[in-house]
């Protein structure tokens, strides 16, 4: 074995004497970036046996060139050439079985293996065997999967079977070769056995992380530090240069490399560490006294001014009930935190603020002294910064919010999971900002996202679901852009807007909530546009207590109660929406509410299209209201809306029903093809109908009953089945310039033919005509008997005229039952 290795080294040394134009770089993946800068000789045709003297004399120089032979080289020792070595070299290079060569190569370290690869093409192929390099790789780095490092600040592990290059172990070895190693207890063994590790003289080993950082400061190496398996406790880790520190262990690396501190911040990044990297390790702050006041200044990670380190694939834990896990403070502090697990901490998950240090001149509120924060700035990630990037982190089971952002902080949080917090998921307050994109926010005890006190974050493309309270909660002058989120399955409203808050809410899906979809109250505002709100247990949208949102181009449908519900002085604008298929009305307005409802399509309600009641108001203009199970518009109980230029048609009941003291202005509406009266006015109501067209109805055009009154001006009433205008006894109407024409007058025709009105009314309509009772048959006011039934069925009975009014004839039903018996 020793002679074989010596032979390889001799061949390599002789190769070094070959002119540059006769050698080539080593082939194979990663050769161009190899740190070894090795070269091998040019591949030549297979040598023949030594020729005879005569043949040598007759050989020409050109023939030698044609066959690719080169002139004989002098031996390295300088002695005369020994041709007897050629057969041995030939045997080693060509005849020795692969299994034997691989066995021999398995005893070589990486540099000798690279030298062997330079001998010939066959040795190059065998020396690049992945199994050889895997053994060397795991001996040095411990990883059970190759850790690729293609560029600064980027590390990732791969599956060798799926990698595009044939030998990822060697490629990773080349990329990581120049690093120093922290491996407690190994340094003494390494340096006391130079023969065993010959060829690795450039590798550096340290017993502690502090010693390795000292080596960086003394320029012993470039700054790549591998921290091997173990628990490193109470080391003073202050980083003042752009070092790279990464865990090195088999299996799940971060679980095997644990760095913790019980007295001071575990990591402190200082100015000069702008592009530092820390990855694949567990970082813990675990004080003995978890609630002591002096711990509030210590953290798992502390990042100061002008630092932008990358924290990657780390597990971050803090068991202190004060202080925080990560503190980023000062101007220019902008960390990137990605693929981290931040959980099981005793307070807030991420706390992001400027700590009232007035790093930005435009700040308006007073300077708050740091002492006011003691005992309050508590949690997992305490970030006192303007910016920061957090990607693919798992933040869960923290005692306070998963993220807390305040005071102009503007982090970017992408594809994180924020869940099972004992309070909320994300809390943005005191003019906080931030970009929260494509995260999963779920199963938090309070709202998934809280936005308050003039904060203005962007919440985009997130899934916010299964919260024990609401999805997104915006209050106390909060703002923000809530866009493209999927918000569902929350115990309270999917989005709640209150107390002068004014967000933009658009392109969201808000559905299957156990409460309402969007709840705007206590002077809430905002633009709510192009959302889909559906299948919520209560109202799709609630607007109340002085709120004035703008709801535009939304699809609000399939709710288990009301579509949009304005009550207790709820106002705002509802325009260009599709509102359909609700178990109750599409829109309800009550108790002083006065919204503007225009250009909507409202259909498929099981309890009507729009219901205005209990002193409701509103401007209802240019809507299309159709195919509702009950009236297209209900106005009752002292309500006084304005309906203008609406199309109210194809209802399964009436067009507009006004009763119980309802009022309102109905102007320039088209009311047609409804199953019941186009307009029914009843029970002390007094609306104004002006310039409406009421036509093609399957019952009456207008019916006024039960002591109601009305003002009718300039209306056109035509082609209705029962007739144009029906007035009950005791009704006084003010009429001017109305046109009642070309109605079918089915009631008058039925009476003139002696037909019972049941023939045209059945159970589906309520024709208006003379209303009788029969004392002989002891009927009551509830039993309607038409004039033809009085003449035929009750002829000779003691009958009494009650009034001219609308009713369904029960006489026909009684007669049919008698016949059946």
Please describe what this structure looks like.
This protein is α/β, with parallel strands linked by helices and 821 residues long. It has a domain of 75 residues. 15% of the residues lie in helices and 32% in strands. The longest helix is centred in the N-terminal third of the chain and has 14 residues. The C terminus is likely disordered.
Task: Provide a compact summary of the structure.
This protein has 16 helices and 71 strands. The protein is α/β, with parallel strands linked by helices and 821 residues long. The longest helix has 14 residues, at 2-15.
Task: List the main descriptive attributes of the protein structure presented here.
15% helix, 32% strand, 821 residues, 23-stranded parallel beta sheet, 16 helices, disordered C terminus, single chain, alpha/beta, 21-stranded parallel beta sheet
